[in-house]
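Dissemination and training. As part of the outreach component of the grant, students in the summer workshop were shown how a complex can be specified as a set of sequence lines and then modelled as a single object. The example used during the hands-on session is reproduced here so that future cohorts can follow it. Participants entered these lines:
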Amino acid sequence: MAEKMLEVKDLRVSFEVKKGLAETLMGKKETIKAVDGVSFEIGRGEILSLVGESGSGKTTTGKAILRLAPVTGGSIKFEGEEISGKSQKELHEFRKKAQMIYQDPYQALNPRQYIIDIVGEPLDVNDLCKTTEERLERIKKALENAGLVPPEDYLYRYPYELSGGQRQRVAIAGSLIMNPEFIVADEPVSMLDASIRTGIIKLMLEQRDKMGVAYLFITHDLSLAWLISDRIAIMYLGKIMEMGTADEIINHAEHPYAKALINIMPIPGKMIDSGRDILEGETPNAAVDIKGCKFCARCPVRQAICETEEPELREISPGHLCACHFVK
Amino acid sequence: MLLEVKNLKTYFTTSKGEAKAVDDVSFNLEQGECLGLVGESGCGKTTTALSICQMLPKEGRIAGGEIYLDGVNYADLSEKEISKHRWEDVSIIFQGAMNAFNPVKKVGWQIAEACMLHDGLKKDEAWKKAGDLFELVGIPRERVTQYPHEFSGGMKQRAMIAMALACSPKLIIGDEPTTALDVMIQAQILELLEKLRRELNMGMILITHDLSILGETCDRIAVMYAGKIMEIGDVRDIFEDPRHPYTKKLISCFPDVRGERVIPDGIPGYPPSLIDPPEGCRFCPRCEFATEACSTTCPELVQVGEKHFVACHNMEEV
Ligand SMILES: Nc1ncnc2c1ncn2[C@@H]1O[C@H](COP(=O)(O)OP(=O)(O)O)[C@@H](O)[C@H]1O
Ligand SMILES: Nc1ncnc2c1ncn2[C@@H]1O[C@H](COP(=O)(O)OP(=O)(O)O)[C@@H](O)[C@H]1O
Ligand code: SF4
Ligand code: SF4
Ligand SMILES: [Mg+2]
Ligand SMILES: [Mg+2]
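and obtained this result:
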């Protein structure tokens, strides 16, 4: 791996939520372990994809790393410095280097602001420009880098005047203006049409190639993850089930859940004559405490031990990790 | 022939002018056949479906063409006859339909009510029918008395499918029926639709923006762009021998893990306005093969194989 940039160890995030009315009156709360002991590293210029179904804890993991969700336990080291215990004030420098791109470009942008002010906001908040000319120059540069050319055409427009793809480019311009070293991209193309998608992906990869930006790329789309990332981590109920290089995961997955996901992965033009191995049921509620393997209830090959003992995420071959009692 | 759509034109009145959402679309569907209707957002897929079901909002109108279902031309029917046919002949399942259940009524009762209203069943018969339909779509019978909040998203979508089957329609239209669902549940629902189509010998139109799910479910695919069908053919024609530049580009936008890891080019630009569409071929402003003729004359669908039709002036060069 390239120079280590981010090191996440045993990250935990839990939320206390009120249950139904009766339980609330009795003062009962339930705990949702949204992220339940997640560890990984990301090198400079590296792309790690977090893949999983909704509710598996992808967004919470990404937000927790940027300290946008409460960290309940574990450690987050960015360029060797511990991030998890820092006060908001101490996070100032980190916030300039690490940015987030959200799924929904419609919600992420203030509808009443001009594009120039949306993109310029990080500069204003951090008081980075001495003159209005300098500010304008940097904003134009950021728009250009995000593929919105000529930038003058976009400065004084509102988000609603742009298409979905253009809006996501504006959001990306807003992240790039700080020249970040690390970006958490949370389903950045999920709401965009296929033909628009690749433009955004290319834009992100360009930043990696030119500036060495590293990404935690969050997606539910395994084939997209394969296309763009160096490594893939597959999450289920707050845990990483399997992690390895993109090709290794797609071609040699060992974990029963990862295998099931790969088995049903839609592929254009793949025609299926015989039935597929579709898992039955749905992901259980994250508030239910599971003692053994998180995947136990749906696992086609579970054994007695799976219900009582949780498997560890172990290296099964160099760089390939898997959390299952029966994968050695 | 179960369904025949001939030169359908559906326009919307908007403040900026008339949007030609569906502009001269023709296709047909055999009994028991599944047609995939694919294209990017705004290309007119939902409008096509709503036109077939006679469910257009008031600002929309069928401006031309004919729709025959089982030989009956809807244009000849009265409002009342149409609403009867709507349930008995064709049912539609929308994206996110699972959120359409009334939260304070039992799910089974909502289905039973539909059976009483449209099939004239008595109350106890209707409850039994609701239970039968639950079993058909893979929900345990005893859950008919539960409320929507007791159902997961996937179960609600199953129940919606049960509702759509209440009057044994001849044609079922799924408009992005799995778009809001997780991949595993999407696979479950697609498999269910496939099973039902075979068992009940229904015609099916599966509408989606996600080309990658169609190979597994459809017999034929129609590719729509800006209100027009650009190419239509057998699943194999479309995936193995695509002839239209847009079809080719669209396919290339979906990663194929069996191939090489190369980021596809995508398609430059954006789809055109439907109020003032390009004069010739609607794909012309984004097409790398465009020639003089493309900007002036709209290409017609031309037969290139047994079931394969393509609308492009330059398909030989593509
Ligand atoms: N602010 C919150 N309060 C309570 N529960 C939350 C909150 N954010 C997320 N969760 C819960 O945490 C789990 C993981 O959610 P999330 O990280 O959004 O998953 P994903 O991004 O993989 O869909 C879910 O069960 C979700 O309901
Ligand atoms: N109620 C409406 N009023 C005005 N225009 C509409 C209305 N519904 C759809 N349209 C327009 O018709 C076109 C096709 O829409 P639609 O059929 O929903 O596309 P799709 O389902 O392929 O995304 C779009 O350009 C859309 O803006
Ligand atoms: S540990 Fe057991 S339940 Fe978990 S994935 Fe492995 S076999 Fe299945
Ligand atoms: S008709 Fe012309 S513009 Fe249209 S798809 Fe064919 S080559 Fe391209
Ligand atoms: Mg999320
Ligand atoms: Mg639609």
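Chain A has a mean pLDDT of 91. Students were then asked to discuss how this feature might be tested experimentally.
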